[in-house]
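Lay summary. Proteins are chains of building blocks that fold into shapes, and those shapes determine what they do. In this project we predict the shape from the chain. Here is one chain we studied, written as its sequence of building blocks.
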Amino acid sequence: MEPMLESINVAANASLKVETYSNNNHCESAGWHIHPEFELVYIKNGSGVLNIGSKKRVYNNGTLVFLGGNIPHADFGNRDNADNQEIVVQFKKEFLEEKLKVFPELLKIKELIQKSKQVLIFDSDVQKKLWPDFKKFCHLDHQGKLINLLYILDLLSKESIHKTLFDTLSTANFKKNEIKRLEEVFMYVNAHYAKDISVTEISSQLGLTPNSFCRFFKKMTQRTFIDFVNEFRINKALEFFNENNTFITEVMYRSGFNNPSYFSRQFKKYQGHTPSNYLKNRYADSFS
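And here is the predicted shape, written in a compact code that computers can read:
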């Protein structure tokens, strides 16, 4: 199982990291995770859900999202269409603080990057317009990738229409030890979601009382720990269903639930329909 702290390894001779995924080479799911790097994500098509911090947004026909560092989020991609591609561009805050600051001409780009702390979701027309530019990343060397990213950021800073996911979302007030603790929480849930999740055990592991832990988690994510665990498990259930495993009971146990009624209620809460209706809709052709 992959840990919840995602380590972003930017090459020594590069300012950014670019990864391109397809249905044949899909990003390995890390579930909920956090990392200090800024992240620009382009998803060509298909539908999915953006789970970022305390927010949840459905997208259709792909999406283009820009989020700042140290914002908890789940994976964004989907496997709806065979030709779907996901391009992920990540760079450290030093890119902004040390490199871009020497060019006063890049003020609008710097402002755009700063706004990414509120999480930016771009208009579908902008997304479609930029597809050729994101697509070319895989054919470029380090210098070309940097120039291409600056071109994309320049366009986004001047012409794009976007929505902010958060009115304000500042992680600057979070201490390093708080970020580390949150990473440990994600690692724990990722390793234990199929078993009983013990608040007492994880609180002790973090050196907190159960009450202090619950307050800490609410402060960092703006949601309760139980709510987070339930949604995490439902997202795992979706993964298992999408592997063509249509046995509801088996998926229920694999994702950490042991009560069919409770599983069905939680699934409907986070997905809008029951497990059986989800399977009927997704595999309608198989059942006809």
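What the prediction tells us: Residues 16-164 form a domain with the Jelly Rolls fold (CATH 2.60.120).
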